[in-house]
Amino acid sequence: MENTSTEKEKKQQTTCYHCGEPCDNDGLYHDGKDFCCSGCRTVYDVLSENDLCDYYNLANTPGNNQKNRATRDNRFDYLDDKEISEKLIDFRDEDQTHVTFYVPMVHCASCIWLLENLNRLDQGIISSRVDFIKKKVQVKFQQEYIGLKDIVALMAGIGYEPAINLSDLNVGKRPKMDRKLIYKLAVAGFCFGNMMFFSLPEYFSEAELLGPGFKNLFRYLNVLLSLPVFFYAATDYYQSAWLAFKNRTVNMDVPIAMGIITLFVYSLVGIFLLGQEGYLDTLGGLLFFLLLGKWYQQKTFDTLSFDRDYTAYFPIAVTRLKKDQEEVIPLTKVQVGDIIRVRNEELVPADSILLNEEASIDYSFVTGEEVPVGLKKGSLIYAGGRQKGPAINLAVQKSPSQGYLTDLWNHEAFSKREQKDSLASLANRISGKFTFTVLLIAFSTLLYWSMYDFSMGIRAFTAVLIITCPCALAMSTPFTLGNIMRIFGKSSFYLKNSQVIEKLAAVDTLVFDKTGTLTSPANAKIRYEGEKLSDETRGVLKALVSYSVHPLSNRINRYLGQVSPADLEKVEEIPGKGLTATYKSQSIALGAASLMELKPDDAVNSRGNKVYFFVEGVHLGTFFIDSGIRNGMGKMVQELKNRFDLHLLSGDLDHERQILERELGNEIHMYFQQSPADKLSHIERLQHSSKQVLMVGDGLNDAGALRVSQVGIAVTDNISHFSPASDAILDGKKLSLLPQFLDFADTGRKVIKASFVLSFAYNAVGIYYAVQGLVSPVLCAILMPASSISVVLFTTVVTNLLAFRRGMNQKATEKWK
After folding, report:
1. Main-chain dihedrals φ then ψ at residue 371, nearest 5 degrees
2. Is the same domain home to 584 and 595?
3. What digits encode the pLDDT tens for the residues 253-275?
4. Phi and psi at residue 400, to the nearest 5°
5. C-alpha–C-alpha distance, residues 6 and 95, integer Å
């Protein structure tokens, strides 16, 4: 009986091994561990059976409380409904399904580890990826082995039930402020205020307003109030420091955690053994102001959420059919029920129903599988698929998701080599060395003062640890680069991520495509020579060029005007050469002379591009297109020639060389008759010569070159040919601003380095006063977040001011049409 009573009392005093909640009289003792309820015990059993108990090694009590978890087995049955599941699913084919869940319970490294190991809980799950900032989990699974309902039930069973709100499926969710941080801030604030009140006898000791008995009583009350501050409000710093030690590293929370522990232990020793007042009120103020600064930083970061701003600027445009007429509109204006046209090599922007008899869709950007999928009329085509072959008409079934297309753009298959000398990695390296230096100075200060005044030594030791936080170093880089991204976005220059800015600042060689990049279809002049075009022939040509988004095809399309397109079969676009099709059993071709092995000398000499028209291999006529160089290209090249090595690559013949040299100058190296493979090889040769290459192309025949270069910019006019291989999208009207963009990217690096100097100067001044014991730990706790905020304000104000002086901070006056 005594053993039973002792075991029961032990349960009352313990906390749950899984979630950390107190174990009351209903607690359970299982496998040598205490659990607050059967739900937490069940989760532990699931993880234990699947050899996933490393989850508990990453953090103490990482799980979520399971007491109030619903136990009904049928509460997720609604996910078996096909109509509902289709609204949730991002992508599905014969082999796999992709779905993204919002999981608000994600709160630590253990959560990330467990959710990214779901495939170990069920063989049907291929992989899972966590976006900690957005609290989203993307799951890829094989529907043959596991269903959507089973996955949701599995995640709920281990304590991470997705938040599914079908009425808000098409509305972006903004993650809410971490409530735990608010609770900890409230606890620290309450305790700090009362500890200040109970410390009045110490503050007014000379006036002897209160007797010595009250002074001791208030000291003990301060001890009680310090317990929730030390054991609850400061837990984030302990966990972060412990994870750093486990990984044999030192992060910025290590000195803070050491300072908190030192103040607490020394105060207890002083109060109970030495009869002194201690520093518990200082400890309360320290945690309150640290958490207040952390909360403010988080609010500031949410306000300046650069990823969200970037997706709002994302300039995907779509061809919509209205009364048999084409119109180009922004993706944001596409509505469910709209009929859109997707041409060869274009991405499908939204889940849609196929209206044509057949289509060939490449889902490599979604699944990594490069083999196109053949689909029939009425099939559902998912966003992210790329059309291969003739243009197709689609009926939009789900509102387009820019966030999903952004994920495709950032797909790991298109990630490029990282810069070893990036400012982000530089900041991390500096922060690590900085923290070791701070610890050395702090212990040296403690050793020095211990020989004279140990109490002052503790005060100075703690002050050094708190005031010299490298937070400003860690924050200056993302805030500066993020603000530059926003400035570029207002000038119609849209970057994939902030790392592109650093790569832009490092390039020394620029490679330009000609057609559609340095030249514009809108400025081109066109004429036709050859056999007279009948209405039927014009309809055939109209249908043929409608299948392509190449600038020359667009120009011929405009030249033909309003003509009813003919019905073609077996339409194919050959990159770098042209288009082929079958019409009434006759082969039709339109493109370069090499398409039908026609010698260029067989055609009439003329400057400009030549597009040849063939029927059954017979050359019937030629379209002569003067390229029409974009306005401002000559000035742009003159501004770039002194800083960069310039190259021009074109698939055309060199009959425009003289015109281009007259307009652009002789400083640019020109190469003609370059196929897509030739362009890629040219980039690789430059890189082998230790060149940092920026490729500027139209994203059509230049996908390989854009991908292999250090930075690839896709230039677009009235429609964005979305290419995950590019790092940026630039409105063609803004191409002349490229020198300013490159210069401002370099300026951004200088601003970041200036912020480093500012941060070091602040810390040097702080250490000077802290080692002398002239500043209290509470004042340090106020100054530490203030320094971070000042660096953020410095980088933001300076970049905005420099952008204003260069005319880059105003929104583009010409809207996307």
Report:
1. -75, 120
2. yes
3. 777 777 788 778 877 877 777 66
4. -60, 145
5. 56
Q: Is 759 inside any structural domain?
A: no
Q: Do residues 777 and 263 make contact, with C-beta atoms less than 8 angstroms apart?
A: yes
User: Residue 609 CB: number of other CB atoms within 10 A?
Assistant: 25
Q: Which residue has the tokens 């106020």?
A: 782
pTM exceeds cut of 0.90: no
What pLDDT, in 10s, does the model give residues 551-578? 788 788 888 887 888 888 888 888 778 8
Query: Is residue 144 in a domain?
Result: yes
**Domain that includes residue 92, residue range:** 77-168
Inter-helix orientation angle 738-770/499-506, to 10°: 110
Nearest in space to 350 (alpha carbons), one of 403, 392, 399: 399
CA dist list (Å): 740 to 504, 633, 735, 743, 807: 11, 13, 10, 5, 10
Same domain? 656 vs 697:
yes
Regarding whether 430 and 284 lie in a shared domain, the answer is yes
Neighbours of 395 (CB within 10 A): 14
Which one-letter amino acid corresponds to residue 29?
Y
How many domains does the chain fold into?
6
585 and 564: one domain? yes
Which DSSP helix (H) or strand (E) runs through 646? strand 645-649
In whole angstroms, what is the distance from residue 393 CA to residue 256 CA? 60
Q: Check whether residue 139 and residue 94 sit in a common domain.
A: yes
Number of H helices, E strands in the chain: 26, 28
Give the pairing of strands 693-697 and 509-513.
parallel
- Does residue 730 lie within any of the structural domains? yes
Query: CA 69, 71, 77 angle in degrees (round to 5)?
Result: 110
Rounded Cα distance, 567 and 686, in Å: 45
The answer to whether residues 638 and 605 touch, using CB atoms and an 8 Å cutoff, is no
Lowest mean pLDDT among 162-171, 238-247, 510-519: 162-171
CB-based contact 383:422 (threshold 8 Å): no
| 767, part of any domain | no
User: Do 280 and 365 belong together in one domain?
Assistant: no
As a whole number of angstroms, the distance between CA 457 and CA 265 comes to: 14
Whether residue 118 sits in one domain with residue 253? no
Does 499 share its domain with 595?
Answer: no
